[in-house]
C-alpha cells in the first residue's frame, strides 16, 4: 500500500513505516530521512525526482546547499503552475518536521528548506542606485510587494497554519523554521503587515508552550519582531516576563541572547547576573559586555556588577567578568584605567576598586598597560629602579 503523507496540524503525526517495517528515518551512523512516495501526483516524474532528490541530498552535511538551492530554484522558475511544486515540497518537508530529536540529517533538511524559501528575496539594492528610479518604482513595488515572493508567503502560511499541531515535534519545527526564515532575511527586508501580525501572534502563543525547546525557538523567532521604541511592544513584554518567570534556564538564556537593550529591559538583564543558574549568569555578563556601554550604567550598577561578578561562586562567571566585561568597559574608555576608577565609587567601595585593579593587572599584558602610562600624573608615580 502507498504510504500516507504526514498530516498536520489537525491530527497527531505518526511516522510512517518504510518497506523494512522501520520508522521513516533509519538510524545507523547518522539519521537518514526516508522520503516516501506520493499517493497522488500532478507533477511530472522529473519534477518529483528533483524535489525528492534535493531533500535527500540536503540531509548530508557535506553537500553544497547553495548549489541544491540554485538547482531547485531553477526548476521552480520554469514551472508555469507552481501549486504542484508547493505541495510536493511541503510533503517532503513534513518528514523532517515530525522528528523532535536534533539529528544532523533533520537539521540539514530544515536549514535547506529555509535557505530555499528565502532565496526568492530580491537582492539588496546597490548603494549608488539612482534615487529617482527608486522613487518612480516605489509605488509599483508596494502594490506588488505581496506577490513578490509567492513561495516564501506560501511557506509562512503553511507554518502558521501548523503551529497549533498536537505534536510537540511539529510545533518545535514550525518555530525553528520561522526563526530561520526571519533570520535569513536581509537587514532591509520588509514583511507584509498582516503576515507580520500573524507571525507575531503565533509566536506569542508558542512562547508559552509547555515544551521548553518550543519556547526557545519561538523566543528566538521573535528577535526581529521587537520594537524597542514602543513602550508596549508585546515581544519585549513577553521577553521580560520570561526572564522573570520561566523555570527553564535554557529558555531564559535564549531570551537573554536576543532581547533588545533599552532602559526598560536593562534592569531585567542586570537581575539575571544573580540568576540561580551559572550559565544564565555567565551569559548575562556577556550580554552586558557586548551591548551596554559603561556610561549607560549608574555608579551603583557598575559597582554591584563588579562585586557580584568578581566574587561569583562560579569560576566561569568570574572569568567572563575579567575577560569580557572589564575589557569592554576599558575599550569604551580608550583603555584608561584611571577613568574607569573615576566611574566607580572608590571612596566607599575601596575593596571593589582594588579587586577590579587586580583583575585588570592579571588579565592585561604589561605592554598594554604601559601604553596608557601617559594618562598617569607623573607627580604621583613612584619610579622603580632595578
UniProtKB/TrEMBL annotation:
**InterPro entries xrefs:** ARM-like (IPR011989), ARM-type_fold (IPR016024), CND3 (IPR027165)
Give any Gene Ontology cellular component: condensed chromosome
The family database entries (Gene3D superfamilies) matched by this protein are listed as:
Leucine-rich Repeat Variant (1.25.10.10)
Q: Where is this region: Disordered?
A: 1-21, 120-148
**Acidic residues bias (residue ranges):** 129-148
- Regions of compositional bias (Basic and acidic residues) in chain numbering: 1-10
Provide a GO biological process annotation: mitotic chromosome condensation
In terms of superkingdom, the source organism counts as Eukaryota
Looking up PANTHER family in the UniProt record yields:
CONDENSIN COMPLEX SUBUNIT 3, CONDENSIN COMPLEX SUBUNIT 3-RELATED
Protein name from the UniProt record = Nuclear condensin complex subunit 3 C-terminal domain-containing protein
Q: Which organism is it from?
A: Oryzias javanicus
Amino acid at each position: 500500500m502507498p504510504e500516507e503523507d504526514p498530516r498536520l496540524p489537525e491530527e497527531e503525526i505518526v511516522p510512517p513505516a518504510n518497506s523494512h517495517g522501520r520508522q521513516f528515518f533509519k538510524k545507523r551512523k547518522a539519521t537518514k530521512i526516508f522520503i516516501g512516495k506520493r499517493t497522488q501526483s500532478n507533477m511530472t516524474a522529473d519534477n518529483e525526482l528533483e524535489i525528492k532528490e534535493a531533500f535527500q541530498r540536503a540531509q548530508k552535511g557535506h553537500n553544497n546547499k547553495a548549489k541544491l538551492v540554485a538547482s531547485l530554484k531553477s526548476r521552480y522558475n520554469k514551472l508555469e503552475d507552481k501549486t504542484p511544486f508547493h505541495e510536493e515540497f511541503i510533503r517532503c518537508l513534513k518528514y523532517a518536521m515530525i522528528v523532535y530529536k536534533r539529528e544532523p540529517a533533520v537539521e540539514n533538511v530544515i536549514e535547506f528548506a529555509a535557505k530555499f524559501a528565502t532565496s526568492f528575496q530580491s537582492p539588496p539594492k546597490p548603494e549608488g542606485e539612482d534615487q529617482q528610479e527608486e522613487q518612480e518604482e516605489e509605488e509599483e513595488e508596494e502594490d506588488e510587494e505581496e506577490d513578490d515572493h509567492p513561495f516564501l508567503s506560501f511557506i509562512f502560511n503553511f507554518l502558521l497554519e501548523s503551529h497549533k499541531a498536537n505534536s510537540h515535534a511539529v510545533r518545535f519545527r514550525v518555530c525553528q523554521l520561522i526563526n530561520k526564515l526571519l533570520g535569513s532575511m536581509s537587514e532591509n527586508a520588509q514583511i507584509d503587515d498582516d503576515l507580520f501580525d500573524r507571525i507575531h501572534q503565533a509566536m506569542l502563543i508558542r512562547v508559552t508552550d509547555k515544551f521548553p525547546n518550543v519556547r526557545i525557538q519561538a523566543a528566538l523567532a521573535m528577535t526581529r519582531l521587537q520594537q524597542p521604541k514602543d513602550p508596549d511592544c508585546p515581544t519585549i513584554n513577553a521577553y521580560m516576563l520570561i526572564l522573570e518567570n520561566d523555570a527553564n534556564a535554557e529558555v531564559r538564556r535564549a531570551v537573554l541572547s536576543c532581547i533588545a537593550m533599552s532602559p526598560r529591559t536593562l534592569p531585567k538583564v542586570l537581575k539575571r547576573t544573580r540568576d540561580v543558574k551559572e550559565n544564565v549568569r555567565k551569559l548575562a555578563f556577556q550580554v552586558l559586555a557586548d551591548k551596554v556601554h559603561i556610561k549607560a550604567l549608574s555608579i551603583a550598577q557598575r559597582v554591584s556588577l563588579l562585586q557580584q561578578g568578581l566574587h561569583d561562586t562560579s569560576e566561569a562567571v568570574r572569568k567572563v567578568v575579567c575577560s569580557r566585561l572589564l575589557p569592554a568597559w576599558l575599550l569604551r574608555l580608550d583603555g584608561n584605567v584611571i577613568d574607569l576608577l573615576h566611574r566607580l565609587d572608590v571612596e566607599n567601595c575601596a575593596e571593589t576598586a582594588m579587586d577590579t585593579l587586580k583583575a585588570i593587572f592579571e588579565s592585561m599584558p604589561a605592554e598594554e598597560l604601559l601604553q596608557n602610562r601617559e594618562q598617569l600624573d607623573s607627580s604621583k608615580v613612584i619610579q622603580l629602579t632595578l
